[in-house]
């Protein structure tokens, strides 16, 4: 049978008295949380269970009570969460600054709930950093608060219009979204009676899927070293001509026509389709953001979001720091313990394996 072991630390203090007010005073020992019966390891582990294992506060309390014979109420687990986010806010704002200075970012957002009402989890990050922000709005103002007014790096995202507001220096439209959209339109047309099927629209969608799969394959070959950067870049004019050829005729099926306009219109996706062939290591799809947001989506189904603005803020901060720690090769529990015990500078040194490379042009 599993027998978890609880380690209790006793801090024995010498007491002195303040010469002015006569109050007893003592010096905090290394590793001690002053005036707390529950120590930093327990609190850090509780936050880890909350944000990494995706448990409710009540389930966190059950684990400590049932396995470690450490009883506390679910509200205490919530208090641990709030305390860590409050002390980690400086680190969170520093992370926002690093996100704004990154060379390559993936951006996306998904639905969330605050006290039962609609909200959104925004994500911006790359292989080194992860920044989350929960907001009731999905407006351009929120995007600007995350990325800044003129992001000087390369942004990979879907074609949601708010990303235009941040005016990124380079932007790559997610080709996987376009391929999936074309596939869904084809399936929808196939469900119609043969006499109502728009064969031109079906041919267009098949052509879109074939073309952009070929483009994505070229990107994979470039990253694998099978095709040089210059060779891949020289293919851009041919791909642009192929897009114009595919979209030269209007289509009767409305959804197919909307997709056609989207990929041929210079004000929409057209000028962002092949950016990745001009920028080293820039991917053609936004899979990184999609995969990162899977965990918040699962969490939302378990805990139904947050009950308050304070909870949403704590969720944003702690999830950002936890995910970034993993991407830096650090354990989140160690980071949370340092946040609780140390200074912001000590927490920053604990979080980053080494300073990430940033874009000096910002």
Can you summarize the main beta sheet?
Answer: 5 strands, mixed
Widest beta sheet: strand line-up: 5-4-3-6-7
N- and C-termini, Cα separation = 57 Å
Large-scale geometry: elongated
Beta-strand residue fraction: 5-15%
- Helix proportion: 40-55%
Total number of β-strand segments?
7
Helix/strand order = EEHHHHEEEHEEHHHHHHHHHH
Q: Uncertain spans, ≥5 residues at pLDDT below 50?
A: 355-362
Q: Note the total helix count.
A: 15
Q: How large, in whole angstroms, is the Cα Rg?
A: 26 Å
Mean pLDDT: 90
Which class best fits the helix and strand makeup?
alpha/beta
Task: Name its key features.
single chain, 362 residues, alpha/beta, 15 helices, 10% strand, disordered C terminus
Can you walk me through this structure?
This protein has 362 residues and is α/β, with parallel strands linked by helices. The chain has a domain at 175-285. It contains 15 helices and 7 strands. A 5-stranded mixed β-sheet has the order 5-4-3-6-7, with helices on both faces. A two-stranded antiparallel sheet has the order 1-2. β4 (117-125) and β5 form a beta hairpin. α1 crosses α14 and α14 (332-341) runs antiparallel to α15 (344-351). Mean pLDDT is 90; it is low at 355-362.
């Amino acid at each position: 049978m599993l027998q978890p072991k609880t380690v209790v630390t006793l801090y024995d203090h010498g007491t002195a008295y303040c010469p002015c007010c006569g109050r007893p005073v003592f010096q905090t020992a290394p590793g001690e949380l002053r005036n707390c019966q529950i120590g930093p390891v327990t609190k850090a582990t509780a936050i880890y269970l909350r944000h990494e294992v995706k448990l409710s506060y009540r389930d966190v309390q059950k684990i400590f009570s049932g396995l470690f014979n450490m009883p506390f109420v679910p509200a205490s687990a919530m208090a641990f969460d709030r305390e860590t986010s409050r002390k980690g806010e400086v680190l969170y704002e520093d992370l926002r600054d690093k996100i704004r200075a990154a060379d390559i970012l993936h951006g996306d957002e998904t639905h969330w709930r605050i006290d039962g009402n609609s909200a959104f989890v925004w994500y911006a990050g790359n292989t080194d950093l992860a920044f989350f922000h929960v907001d009731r709005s999905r407006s351009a103002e929120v995007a600007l608060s995350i990325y800044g007014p003129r992001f000087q790096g390369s942004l990979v995202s879907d074609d949601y219009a708010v990303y235009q507001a941040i005016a990124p220096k380079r932007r790559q439209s997610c080709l996987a979204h376009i391929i999936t959209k074309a596939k869904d339109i084809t399936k929808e047309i196939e469900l119609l009676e043969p006499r109502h099927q728009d064969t031109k629209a079906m041919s267009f969608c098949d052509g879109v899927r074939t073309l952009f799969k070929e483009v994505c394959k070229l990107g994979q070959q470039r990253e694998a070293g099978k095709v040089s950067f210059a060779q891949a870049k020289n293919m851009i004019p041919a791909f642009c001509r192929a897009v114009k050829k595919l979209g030269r005729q209007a289509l009767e099926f409305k959804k197919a026509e909307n997709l056609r306009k989207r990929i041929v219109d210079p004000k929409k996706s057209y000028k962002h389709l092949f950016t990745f062939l001009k920028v080293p290591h820039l991917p053609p799809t936004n899979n990184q953001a999609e995969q990162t947001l899977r965990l918040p989506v699962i969490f939302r189904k378990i805990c139904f979001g947050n009950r308050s603005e304070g909870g949403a803020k704590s969720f944003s901060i702690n999830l950002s720091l936890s995910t970034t720690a993993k991407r830096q090769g650090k354990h989140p529990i160690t980071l949370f313990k340092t946040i609780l015990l140390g200074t912001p500078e000590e927490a920053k040194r604990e979080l980053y394996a080494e300073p990430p490379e940033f874009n000096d042009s910002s």
